[in-house]
């Protein structure tokens, strides 16, 4: 039986379960139709009257008047109504406005008539109604049992497969099954293999990028520094050489951040990082973006506040947000405020472009004013999630404010 059920598809199992349920219901209906309720009443009434017969015959033999319960009457040959004369000995059901039950018996050679009102057997109505209720209850219980059994048999392989997928136990079960569970298991296995291959390619890319890019960047940076030092003080190439040096240093930092993002967040080395010196360092690096612009760079942060985090990733978040604020603010101020666990960077620039949804920090479309430098806001959000922080933004045409909640800060 189990092997047969194992070869059935889920659709077939559910269909068979409902067919069995319908057969059970029809069986109860057929059993109920086989009962003749009138014959049942007559049988019960006859047995009840027959049970009274020995007592009545004994009282008649002693010459005493039998005591009759309410709703019952005993007629002698002299007191019997004319309508009861035609009835022969035995049980009779009298129809009429009120159903009555008659038992004619002999005692001492004479006929006696025991008549009982149908109201005496009203309890049979309740018994029949109770039987109908019992049939309904049994049908419901049968449906519940079949449904429960079917659901357990259907969901058990799904739960087992889900547990194997969650725990990464391979090979997945039911790969050889021919039903829908087998199709699902093979789909999970295929996508799992594809995900593992993608992760392997990503690890190889990260390793290759780390190895192949660090050395060229170091060479470019060293050459740019040499050129900048050797140029005459008044040479027009000095700003370009210094920009190459800054850009190379920024690319090295970006590469380090990308490599850190490829690691497990739980394995990041964390330490107590002082926040004000970190912010001041980023502010110093932003000075070139504010050259010849009427923009004030304001810091409102107490000394000695630190947070337990990864310093390089924290620096990247602050630097990219602060650099964007300085780059796109043409007048007014850029204010950095530190209040316990909250770091706010606000500017008086034009706000976020229409292509960026402030409520959905995922992958941002590049705007016309973006130069392409920096990690971009989407990767900033990735770093924030990697560190376990939270970031919110309020943007309008009067400026933009980023709020970072960095966890537990201490002073």
Explained architecture:
It is rod-shaped and about 155 Å long. The longest helix has 51 residues. Strands 6-8-9-11-10 form a 5-stranded mixed β-sheet, with helices on one face. A 4-stranded antiparallel β-sheet has the order 1-4-3-2, covered by helices on one side. It has a 3-stranded antiparallel β-sheet with strand order 5-7-12. It has 411 residues and is of the alpha+beta class. About 3% of the residues have low confidence. The protein starts with a helix and ends with a strand.
Q: Sheet bearing the most strands, described?
A: 5 strands, mixed
SSE series: HHHEEEEHHHEHEEHEEHEEE
Supply Rg: 47 Å
Tertiary shape: rod-shaped
Q: For the largest beta sheet, what order do the strands appear in spatially?
A: 6-8-9-11-10
- Provide the β-strand percentage band: 15-25%
Rounded mean pLDDT score: 80
- Quaternary: single chain
Overall strand count: 12
- Structural class comes to alpha+beta
| Helical content class | 40-55%
Helical region count?
A: 9
- From the N-terminal CA to the C-terminal CA, the straight-line distance is 71 Å
Give the low-confidence spans.
Answer: 363-375
